[in-house]
Please model this.
Amino acid sequence: MENANKTSLEEFLLLAFSGLGQLQTPLFVIILCMYIVCIGGNVAIIVLVRVEPSLHSPMYFFISLLAALDVMFVSCIIPKLLSNLIAANKRISFIGCFSQMFFSDSLGTAECYLLAVMAFDRDLAVNNPLHYFNIMNNELCVTLASLPWVVGIICVIIPTILTARLEFCGSNEVNHFFCDFAPLHSLACSDPFVSQVVSNSMAFLAAVVPFITTIGFYIHIIVIISRIHSSKGKFKVFSTCSSHLSVAGLYYITAIIVYVLPQGIQYEKFLALSYTVVTPLCNPFIYTFRNRDVKKALFRVTSCRVSSS
Model:
């Protein structure tokens, strides 16, 4: 009997929004529509930056990378959530659960660091406008673009391995709509202390460090703007940063709200939806409506398509 109780789990149950009953169907429709718009909007940004010569600059290169990250991030989580909302089978295999956790968390970490890289790019453009393109050459762009991916993998792979080595022999019900460290630690039969310490330390490195870095770059930008005497000059400089500032603010504010509020509150899952689908959904619209160059490029591309047809 003791050996039976210690049998390792081979699968988990993602409870998601099971408590909503029949309301899961309209929630499925809402999230599906958001997912389609999110994928369509971000893919449109990627294609637009690719085909429009006026957007072939470091800033828009990083914007297209952010859009690609958003597409991959939501695709790690939302399809399984949609399946759980309409299917009776809410199982996810042990490997599938840890794979989802690894990829979603590493992509989330990469996005945090990419936002910091984009803040550095804007700081460099404001501080050294005459030498910006000489400094931000192709080699530096590729290096900065690679950094978030490398850090994302490093920050997540170690706590993922440690968590996967824990014993899971009791309940297999994950009270969330995706696999993450905290819900899995709560299910472990063995002591998760080491895994918790490492995952929390890596979470600090993954989120807090790039957040502080981003704030630091924007403090420097504000100092530079404060030295500009004309209001027109201040507005022009600030306008080059406003889209990124809006995206970074939206991302960090939603993430902070989710992680600051106590775990297990009734609306925690809905709050988690804000940064898993709402933020990636909003990003392409922020860059479209708040960026004059993107609006002009979109108008030119759509005009060419209409005239050619």
The chain has one domain: 9-308. The chain has a mean pLDDT of 89. The domain at 9-308 is CATH 1.20.1070.10 (Rhopdopsin 7-helix transmembrane proteins).
